[in-house]
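The step that takes the researchers longest sounds almost clerical: writing a folded protein down as plain text. Below is the pair of lines this work produces for a single protein:

——
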Amino acid sequence: MINDTQLSFDEMWDIILACDSSYDGLFFTAVKTTRIYCRPSCKSRKPHKHNVEFYLQINEAENAGYRACKRCQPNVHLTPQAELVSDTMAYLLHNYKQKLLLQDIATHVGISAYYLERLFKQHTTLTPRAYLEKIRVDKAAHLLRNSDLTNLEIAYEAGFQSPSIFYKAFRTLKQCSPSEYREQIGGIS
């Protein structure tokens, strides 16, 4: 079982409930009762929360006695380009609190900024910047649901450089303000 990522168990659970493919390859969901592991985006029926474990690597899940899902095929290897995109996604997930420039991200994965942007968008339909913003908004939404931090504290905890950027990004992705979101989901006030 893991927790080397910047995601909590509850955040990973929310991601698999949403079948969010933007987290595929960053972690795997293992179901204790069926002994099967899946991608976060797997469309199979969702297990009970207490029957789930999360792993960062396929070999960790397989060493724990799980086999690959036949529906989502998490063990199918990625192309070199998909591997670069996956590495970029992992880098963004692990460094979302930092101020990241496209050139820094590209240098980390070893390709040009132009090629990274084009390749990433081709595979995910998002730019690396938009993907980073999505990670931050998802983190903020989780904190709004599960903490009593103020919106300002959440903005900085989620990696936003200013409250105005946080409010704009949150409204764009969630179609409401952080305060409205907290009221809608009945989070801690």
User: Anything to note?
Assistant: Strands lie at 28-31, 36-38, 52-55, 67-68.
